[in-house]
Structures are given as C-alpha cells and as structure tokens.
Amino acid sequence: MTRKTNLLVLLGAAAVTVLAVAGFSHAASTAAPVNTAEPKITGTAQDGQTLTASSGTWTSTSTITYKYQWRRCNTQGNGCSNISGADSSDYQLRTADVAHTVRVRVTARNTDGSATSDSNQTAVVATKTAPPPTVVNGCPTSGSGTLDVSAIAPPARLVIDGQTVSPSVINRSSSDITLRFHVSACNGRSISNALVYATAVPFQQFSIPAETPTGSDGWATMTMHQAGSFPASSRQQLLAVFVRARKSGEPLLGGVSTRRLVSFPVHL
I want to staple 197 with a disulfide (CB 3.0 to 4.6 A). Which of 49, 143, 234, 244 is the partner? Predict the structure, then answer.
C-alpha cells in the first residue's frame, strides 16, 4: 500500500505542476503592452509651428498599434484636456495653445489589451512671430541693384543724382546737345522706368524733349535742339536746366516725384 500511495502522490504533484505551467503560459500570452520609455515631443512651441510625437518604447508579445491624442495643459503641464481632432503623430499649434503647454497621450494596443503613456510637456507656447516687413519707408527691404520705380512708394522719394552733357561745353555751334540724368532712391539704388522731363531755363533756348524713362542702369538720355533764343545773353556762361523725375500714374507734384535745377558750362 505504501508504494501505491507514494506513486499516487507523485502523479498528483506532477499534474499540479503541469497545470501551473500551462496557466502561467496562458497568462504570459495575454499581456497588454508595457511602456518602458515615455513618448517624446519634438518641435518649437510657437503658434503655427508643427510638433511631432514619438510613440515611446514598449514591450509586447504581439504586434502593437498606436493611437495619439494631443492634450492642452496649464503652464505646469497639469489640468490637461483633449484637443478635438488632434489625433495624429503631428500637431500644428494654434492660437488657443498660446500661454499653455501641450502633451500627447499614446495608446498602445496589441491582441491582448491596451495601455497608455503621456509624453513630456512642451515649453509654454509662444505667440506667432510676425514676418519681417517687406517694405520700410516705401522701400523694399530685400534685394540689391536696380529697382523698378513701381517698387517704391511714399515717403520714399526719387533723387536726381547724376547728370552729363555732350558736348561737355556748349557753344554757339552746338546745334544739338545730349543730356543724361541718373535717378536713384532707397539709399542710392538705381531706378528704372522713372519718367524724366527736362527743359532749359529760360525757355526757348533749346527744344523740350518728350519724357524719357530711365533704363536698367538708372540713366535717361535725351537730345535737345538749339532754338532761336540761345544764347539767352551775350555773356552767358551756364545753361540752366530744370529736371523732374516721377512715377507714371502719380501726380506731377506728388508721390515719389522729385525736381532739380542743374547747369552745364557755356562758352560763347
């Protein structure tokens, strides 16, 4: 009897061991994901900027899928509430987030269950930075070189800053003279397509050419023909010329227009 009893005891113990192992194996196969490193948020905490969330690190006995929920919190990262519609790994900050922090909650799910983990909080969301102005005092703030006259506006003004005449000294035999005027604005940048008008003073010494646009180098070239009232005096030493530069479509005396009186040498 003793041997039979011992055998039955051993068989019973073996059966309990088998059942315990089977039970442990079943428990291990039904474990939900376990988070081992929290999700992280990267990006700039500023209105209009886009934040990106990582899923964090998880362990699981089967494949994991992730869901995201962005949450708006107070400045300490507490008192969070879900942001409607913000359920992807990216989130573009909006005006309502300004002066708050943001977290993301990641839900990891496998075939046996789910678990959640909250990310770090962002810095306090700042207001959107205004883009730098493209025009200051009527002048473009970018670029270099020649400007089209259409690119400038008051209070900027055109400047007539260069003039030449050919021949270099005007005399009685100068039936035609060629005048050139340079127009600039916005800290000396040459201006193209400015309309330049010029007339000798007193009048009727030379003809008045049509308004002439400045070229890509900022210069306008025009020709005057000698008229009956030249010279204005037998002792004339200078030919005075009134010059105006303007922008098409603006008033003659307004807008960015400018005027100047220049002179060229005369030898009779």
Answer: 244
> Can you read off the two tokens belonging to residue 212?
């002439």
How many beta carbons lie within 10 A of that of residue 33, not counting itself? 25
pLDDT of residue 78: 96
Q: Which residue segment(s) compose the domain that 57 sits in?
A: 34-118
Cα gap 115→109, rounded to integer Å: 7
Pairing of strands 90-92, 34-37: unpaired
Question: What's the confidence (pLDDT) of residue 130?
Answer: 84
Residue 247 and residue 49: Cα distance in Å, rounded? 41
Residue 5 confidence (pLDDT): 47
What residues in the chain have per-residue pLDDT under 70?
1-29
User: CA–CA separation, 215 vs 84, rounded Å?
Assistant: 58
Whether residue 170 is found in the same domain as residue 89: no
CATH of the domain at 258: 2.60.40.10
